[in-house]
């Protein structure tokens, strides 16, 4: 059946909007036919669907309509003058915006159907053969309309969700702009962080902070990104120009069009290249304690990027930014000074011991530009023993720093003189009383680790106990060995406790700032430390960072913090380690043990290298027995380790070498040098260590036989 | 003196054979046609060098010389070198000859080379030439 034209309907030659737009507005159906009577017929058939009908009498007009209208489905006549239906469809499909719109072709020719089927094997395409059945046409159209409605509903929902998220993000970012962590940053870090955060929050293409300087008039660019219409030298004179006037009047502004400053944009930071001209600006003064600090300026290349809501939000954010900037500015100068001083009082580097790994961190107090009294130190006493100290002088400032430095030096001296921890702290207490008089109070923890014996002796003067993490992961605080803080009672006894430590154990020394927080029990702090220590990585550097991250409050710490970690290392994997009496019978024993160890651990070694190593090792052991000791019982240590493609041998004694004597002496060292690639004899007052290396491969002595 | 060593043509190891300290080296004094041969076996180091020295020095002073056979030695360090060096000195003072048997490539040979002793002592590869040399350069023995 063919529908007849209906003169009561709206004109059909121009695309038209039948229903007004609205939240639940009907979807558009585009009807395209070059015969107006056919268009009228289609309208009559589809009107009952209640959707918006848009008509076009040519392919060209249909394409124009698609530019303006939101169309859910297109009914397209195949045979048309000008652009025919198939050509029109091809163009519609080629445009990203219209590609997805379903098309129902209208045709009277069966041959067209074949063509359509071939051309659109897939996609939302259908066809209706004229003369069409109104019910069938309506049914087909309503299916597409329904699909389209579902789709736009999904889009609408995701838009609503995105808006909700945007609001949440705004709130979050506002919090981010007043983040306490920002107050830990230096000025430079703070301002660039604020600019970045604000630019992200407001989707600005350019942003900068114009702040007052100590050394120059007006406001200067402190941090920025992109390009903004600020004066070319980056300096804004108060009262001059748009920015200068806004600053003086402390007014916020949303500027567009001819309100914008006439000056050229100049780069204020990264991402200034290829930036389109600024079309919209947000300018908000930063005021803290009723004092103008400067301006924050955000720029956008799109005129409609910012609105009044953004200005309001930025004004709120600016208050928080001003507080942060004020805080940092106020303390930056003083803090820099004291930190330099403090760091100069801490050791540049910690001693290196083959059996120990040490790492330390110092965190200044986050609140006051004051020097803290925390300190740490470590020094090698002899080949086996390393002294480690940590302390806290009550009070702050330069006086505390001076005291700290004197205590540190005195304690170093006592340690070097050979005092144990208890005796050293006793001596130190006397120094405190004699030098500083009453009122000077300090806590100190002093320990000596003997890596070869696997012991640690500890003495504490009122200081928090060190924590020990065993290789098995168990944590305990070594609480004994404690007395009063220094400066309380100079008749303190020399309390000292000894613990054993094994390879894999880690000791953690710290000052009370690590476990104390205001309005919190210290037990909570110790528990937090215990948890952090339990899970901390093995590497001491990483361990220190991990512990600080887990235990230091987000809020600025009111106290400075020092931590020092010591990890006890075992012998290298697979190494041979012998402790033998310094008697002649030990030489063959050591050699046989080496022989077995070489067989097992360095099977690729050739016969000559093997016997050379045995020889060098025996020579070194022989020397110890000959030269190192008197008649009393003594022991020496011999170790062998595989080191990539070399074998490293070491023989250590703790005796005093006599000059070579007797008929058999004198040849040992020379022979060792012939047998090994490298021989190092380290003679010290506490003993001698002979280290030898022999690479695999050719015997080194070939071609250089001694004459 | 017994002269027993001179009357017995074949090598023997008997009461002279003594385990060295730590049981890692042995010294066997043999007689090869009137030439004493000290066969050292095992490992020579500080733990047994004095014992070995004592046995070598205890040789009869009418012997024309001494062959020290190091072929069964698995290990010898500079203490063994010192021993041989001292022994050579003592024998030189007595106009006795010391010849060391130590074939190339053996463990003690390397030490002899590295320490330079090989250039100051007579070292030969095999026992027969050593015995032969001492029999012909040495003065006629009183007992024969």
Total number of helices of chain A: 15
Total domain units of chain B: 1
Integer average pLDDT of chain A: 81
Structural class of chain A: alpha+beta
Biggest sheet details of chain B: 7 strands, mixed
Instruction: Round the Cα radius of gyration of chain B to an integer and report it.
Output: 14 Å
CATH class of chain B: Alpha Beta
Chart the SSEs and their pairings.
The complex is a heterodimer of chains A (707) and B (144).
Chain A (H helix, E strand, L loop, with lengths): L27 E5 L3 H11 L5 E5 L2 H10 L2 E7 L7 H10 L8 E5 L2 H10 L5 E5 L4 H44 L9 H15 L4 E7 L6 E7 L1 E2 L6 E2 L4 H9 L3 E4 L9 E2 L12 E9 L2 E10 L7 H38 L10 E8 L10 E7 L4 E9 L3 H21 L3 H16 L5 E9 L4 E7 L5 E3 L5 E3 L4 E2 L13 E4 L5 E5 L11 H14 L4 H12 L9 E8 L7 E6 L4 H16 L5 H22 L6 E9 L2 E8 L14 H8 L2 E7 L2 E9 L12
Chain B lengths: L3 H4 L10 E2 L5 E8 L2 E10 L4 H9 L7 E5 L3 E4 L1 H16 L3 E5 L5 H9 L6 E3 L2 H11 L7
Parallel strand pairs in B: 3-4, 3-5, 4-6, 6-7
Antiparallel strand pairs in B: 1-2, 2-3
Helix pairs in contact in B: 2-3
């Amino acid at each position: 059946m063919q529908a007849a034209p209906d003169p009561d309907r709206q004109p059909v030659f121009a695309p038209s909007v039948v229903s007004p737009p609205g939240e639940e507005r009907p979807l558009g159906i585009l009807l395209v036919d070059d015969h107006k009577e056919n268009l009228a017929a289609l309208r009559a058939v589809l009107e009952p669907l209640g959707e918006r009908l848009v008509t076009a009498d040519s392919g060209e007009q249909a394409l124009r309509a698609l530019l303006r209208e939101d169309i859910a489905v297109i009914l397209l006549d195949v045979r048309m003058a000008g652009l025919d239906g198939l050509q029109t469809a091809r163009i519609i499909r080629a445009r990203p915006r219209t590609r997805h719109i379903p098309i129902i072709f209208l045709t009277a020719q069966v041959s067209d159907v074949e063509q359509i089927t071939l051309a659109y094997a897939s996609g939302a395409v259908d066809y209706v053969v004229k003369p069409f059945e109104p019910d069938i046409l309506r049914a087909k159209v309503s299916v597409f309309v329904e699909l389209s409605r579902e789709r736009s509903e999904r889009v609408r929902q995701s838009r609503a969700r995105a808006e909700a998220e945007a609001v949440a993000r705004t709130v979050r970012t506002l919090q981010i702009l007043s983040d306490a962590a920002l107050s830990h940053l230096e000025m430079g870090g703070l301002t660039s962080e604020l600019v970045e955060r604000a630019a992200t929050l407001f989707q600005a293409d350019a942003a900068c902070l114009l702040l007052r300087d100590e050394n120059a008039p007006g406001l200067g660019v402190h941090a920025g990104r992109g390009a903004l219409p600020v004066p070319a030298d980056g300096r804004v004179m108060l009262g001059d120009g748009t920015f200068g006037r806004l600053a003086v009047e402390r007014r916020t502004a949303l500027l567009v069009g001819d309100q914008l400053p006439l000056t050229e944009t100049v780069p204020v930071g990264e991402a200034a290249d290829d930036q389109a001209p600024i079309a919209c600006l947000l300018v908000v003064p930063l005021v803290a304690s009723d004092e103008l600090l400067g301006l924050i300026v955000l720029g956008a290349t799109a005129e409609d990027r910012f609105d009044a809501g953004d200005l309001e939000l930025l004004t709120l954010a600016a208050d928080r930014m001003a507080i942060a900037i004020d805080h940092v500015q106020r303390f930056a100068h003083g803090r820099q000074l004291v930190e330099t001083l403090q760091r100069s009082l801490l050791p540049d580097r910690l001693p290196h011991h083959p059996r120990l790994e040490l790492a330390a961190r110092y965190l200044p107090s986050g609140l006051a530009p004051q020097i803290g009294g925390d300190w740490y130190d470590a020094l090698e006493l002899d080949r086996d023993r390393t002294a480690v100290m940590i302390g806290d002088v009550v009070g702050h400032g330069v006086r505390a720093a001076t005291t700290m430095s004197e205590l540190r030096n005195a304690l170093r001296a006592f340690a070097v003189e050979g005092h144990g921890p208890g005796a050293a702290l006793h001596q130190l207490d006397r120094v405190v009383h004699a030098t500083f008089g009453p009122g000077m109070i300090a806590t100190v923890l002093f320990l000596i680790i003997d890596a070869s014996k696997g012991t640690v002796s500890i003495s504490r003067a009122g200081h928090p106990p060190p924590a020990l993490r065993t290789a098995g992961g168990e944590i305990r605080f070594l609480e004994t060995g404690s007395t009063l803080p220094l400066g309380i009672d100079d008749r303190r006894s020399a309390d000292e406790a000894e613990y054993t430590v094994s390879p894999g154990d880690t000791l953690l020394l710290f000052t009370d700032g690590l476990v104390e927080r205001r309005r919190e029990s210290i037990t909570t702090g110790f528990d937090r430390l215990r948890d952090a220590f339990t899970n901390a990585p093995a590497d001491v550097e990483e361990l220190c960072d991990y512990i600080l991250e887990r235990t230091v409050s987000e809020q600025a710490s009111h106290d400075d913090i020092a931590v020092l970690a010591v990890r006890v290392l075992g012998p290298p994997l697979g190494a041979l380690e012998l402790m033998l009496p310094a008697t002649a019978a030990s030489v063959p024993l050591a050699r046989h043990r080496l022989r077995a160890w070489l067989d097992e651990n360095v099977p690729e070694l050739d016969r000559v290298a093997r016997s050379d190593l045995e020889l060098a090792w025996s020579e070194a052991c022989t020397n110890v027995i000959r030269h190192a000791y008197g008649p009393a019982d003594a022991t020496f240590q011999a170790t062998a380790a595989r080191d990539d493609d070399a074998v490293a041998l070491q023989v250590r004694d703790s005796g005093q070498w006599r000059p070579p004597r007797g008929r058999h002496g004198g040849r040992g060292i020379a022979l060792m040098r012939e047998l090994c690639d490298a021989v190092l004899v380290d003679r010290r007052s506490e003993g001698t260590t002979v280290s030898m290396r022999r690479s695999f491969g050719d015997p080194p002595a070939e071609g250089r036989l001694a004459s | 003196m017994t002269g027993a060593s001179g009357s017995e043509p074949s090598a023997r190891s008997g009461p002279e054979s003594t385990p060295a300290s730590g049981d890692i080296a042995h010294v066997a004094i043999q007689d090869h046609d009137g030439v004493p041969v000290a066969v050292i076996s095992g490992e020579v180091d500080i733990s047994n060098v004095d014992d070995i020295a004592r046995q070598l020095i205890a040789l009869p002073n009418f012997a024309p010389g001494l062959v020290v056979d190091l072929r069964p030695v698995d290990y010898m360090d500079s203490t063994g070198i010192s021993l041989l060096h001292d022994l050579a000195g003592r024998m030189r003072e007595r106009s006795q000859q010391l010849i060391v048997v130590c074939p190339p490539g053996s463990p003690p040979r390397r030490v002899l080379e590295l320490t330079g002793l090989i250039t100051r002592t007579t070292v030969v590869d095999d026992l027969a030439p050593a015995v032969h040399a001492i029999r012909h350069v040495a003065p006629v023995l009183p007992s024969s």
